[in-house]
Amino acid sequence: MTASRLFDLLIALLYLTGSVSYPLGLVLRRSILKKAAVWTSVAAFALHTVDLGVRFVEIGAVNLQQGQFYMSLLAWFVVLIFFVLWRRLKHDFLAMITAPLALVLFSSSLAVRTQVLAVPEHFSALWFSLHVGTIFVSLGLITMAFGAGVAYLHLEKIIKTKAKMPGFSKDLPSLETFDRANHWAVSVGFPLYTISVMSGFLWASFTWKKIISWDPKELITIVIWIIFAVLFHQRTALGWRGRKPARMAIVLFALCLVSLVGVNFLLPTHHSFRP
Questions:
Q1: Which residues contact 58 (CB under 8 A, 6 or more apart)?
Q2: Which one of 41, 85, 157, 243 has the fewest beta carbons within 10 angstroms of its own beta carbon?
Q3: Those residues with Cβ within 8 angstroms of residue 95's Cβ, 6 or more apart along the chain or in another chain
Q4: Global confidence as pTM
């Protein structure tokens, strides 16, 4: 096994440790296990950053849109957004979804093989920073909103039905904290998603000489943008709180998964991850 493969395996093992330690810490009510989950994610993130840097040097800026690098970078952004929210909310509950998703995305990146997309060299740096960078940050925020939404609905149901609260639920933050996570993720995520969509269509006009080609990825992206826009408007203009934005964040996350897995891997598209 090469040194590179061993390095990748170490990153995956650290994410796996975080994936197992946090739920185990919740069930057993052991704060040391939850702390271990967070700090192993920190270690994995640090090594992951080094790994991305090495890959960047190896493939060069022009070829950054390779599928393997794309998936690995998405995993990195998900963890980065978790750290930001961890600091803002003063609670690590989103580690429950972050480490497992990072593990899946990073592991998937090791198996992805795809052709390099045909992007004009003079446009690739701008496309990458505007289109890919903003979409990854917004996807990371949608992921956090999803985790907060699931936890909100779970805790709200227990409170409303006056059911006996399981031991692990006692360590969860308040409904207000989950709602703040959703609000922050939506308020920041939608403008970034909009920038990504606009820059993507600009890139398409340079590459294929038309803004919309009715590609499956474009169509589902537009659907996601419309739903995201409704959620953003309802939260910021009409003051939506609680259950409705939590449910809509879950729907958004599900559509993003369909876009990432169903469209990129299974359908013919300009964004295909198929060999």
A1: none
A2: 157
A3: 18, 22, 34, 37, 38, 41, 82, 86
A4: 0.80
